Amino acid sequence: MLEDALLVLRLQFAVSASVHFMFVALTLGLAPVILITQLRATLSRDPARMRAVRFWGGLYVVNYGMGILSGLVMELQLATNWGGLNHVFGNVFSAPLAVETLVAFFVESTFLALWIFGWERMNRWAHLATFLVVTATAYASAYWVLVANGFLKNPVGFEMRDGVAVLTDATALLTNPAATSAFAHISFGALLLGGLFLAAVSSYHLRRSYDPDRIFTRGLRVGIALAALALLPTFVSGGMQFPMIVESVPPTSGDTLSPGEIERLEEGHSSYAPVPLYLMMLCWLASALLVIAGLLMWLARRLEHAPRLQVALLAGPLLPLMASLFGWLSRELGRQPWVVVHHLPTAEGATNLSPGMALLSFTLFTGAFAALVSITYWLLLRYARLGPDHGPLAAPVEGSTAPPPRPSY
Fold first, then answer.
1. What is the pLDDT of residue 325?
2. pTM of this prediction?
3. Segments of 230-355 assigned E as strands
4. Which domain holds residue 356?
5. Residue among 66, 100, 84 at smallest CA distance from 152
6. Residues 6 or more apart from 8 whose CB is under 8 A from it?
7. Residue 267 resides in a domain
């Protein structure tokens, strides 16, 4: 019965972490594009480029809002379902998560609100600076989450006192290779997603000959260029993590459990981490073929007039999203049967729930995630399809309070 409950709790954690990161990845991928576009618009005082900032920024805001909500749901289930982890390693594991909460919910959200409501109310350089802070804190937030997650795979910088972990070396925790290598990988992977997202939305409008102020011509080119720049670093930084994910960690003298107990727990445990890793690589390969096709069309000066490529690009963002999903799955499978490797088995890290309560928790939290995902992607598709004059941050029509007419298509 306990094993049944544990399986449900593990599945719930995998679903919540993977789904939440889908929002995070798009946030990280879009933020630098919006920042650079606004910088160019600020320097040139070009209203066409600022119109593009409002359009892409509106999609960013929708995705960010749902990312915050999904993060709250994930942290709530982490607190309720993994009591053993919080009791033994809460002083170490929860510390970076607490910093991430301060960064994301207070600093990042505050400056994003200033950016949203600061149009025409702030100096253009001050307005640009607010989004610079938003971008920096978005990446800082992701880093702190990976510090916590990296500790589970490679626990460093602590010692056990009376059965409870105490942080003794913050530098070791912050420079943990399991965290830094993952941060590089997800950063480049997010840029790949951001580039393909720009290309997909731009392709949709270009296929319908709708390109006000050449927003979507530039969006397609920037998207392909960004994806091309991120393609190889994503692969290289991901390959650097293979040993950490697939290979077993040898016991050390600093482990809480004896080598015999570690061997007994790991005996007969087959790691399925390579399976999602191979699927992740297939998604990356498909992304690479799509990006290379885009580059070839660009060189042939047919990028904006390649209907078959544009149809294929509509599905482009799904590839890095699925790659991130498989990546997180392989990362979690590669750590089993441990919550904290060689220190806390998964069975001891979970809250003691009956199978019925575990199933209820899974149903409620997964239902909440399903609702958030459905609402977010409906809103993203709706605003992306309507174009720059109907987004959440669209500028009002000069001299009129009525919204501009919707595109005829």
1. 87
2. 0.91
3. 338-340, 344-345
4. 2-154+171-246+272-386
5. 84
6. 355, 358, 359, 361, 362
7. no
Instruction: Specify if 409 maps to a domain.
Output: no
Please check whether residue 261 lies inside any domain of the structure. no
Q: Convert the pLDDT of each residue in 108-144 to its tens digit.
A: 999 999 999 999 899 999 999 999 999 999 999 999 9
- Give domain status of residue 28, yes or no: yes
The answer, yes or no, to whether the previous bond of 337 is cis (omega within 30 of 0) is yes
* Residue among 405, 406, 386, 398 nearest 120 (CA): 398
User: Which two structure tokens, joined as six digits, stand for 126?
Assistant: 């001050």
Tell me what pLDDT residue 401 has.
43
Q: In angstroms, rounded to a whole number, what is the distance separating the alpha carbons of residues 261 and 119? A: 61
Cα–Cα distance measured from residue 371 to residue 373, given in angstroms and rounded to the nearest whole number: 6
The two structure tokens encoding residue 319: 């590839």
State which residues of the chain have pLDDT below 50. Answer: 1, 399-403, 407-409
Q: Are 386 and 33 in contact (CB under 8 A)?
A: no
Residue type, 180: T
Question: Which residue, chain included where needed, has tokens 């731009």?
Answer: 202
pLDDT tens-digit map of 164-198: 999 999 999 999 999 999 999 999 999 999 999 99
Strands 164-167 and 344-345: unpaired
The pLDDT, as a whole number, for residue 30 is 97
d(CA 100, CA 104): 6
Read off the tokens for 89.
């390693």
Contact criterion met (CB below 8 Å) for 129 and 112 = no
C-alpha 390 chain-centroid distance: 26
Give yes or no for a contact between 349 and 339, defined as CB atoms under 8 angstroms apart: yes
According to the model, what pLDDT value does residue 353 have? 84
Transcribe 144-168 into DSSP letters: HHHHHHHHHHS--SEEEETTEEEE-
- Is residue 404 within 8 A of residue 105, CB to CB? The reply is no
**CA-CA distance, 192 to 317, in Å (whole number)?**
9
Tokens of 253: 């003298």
Domains: count for the chain: 1
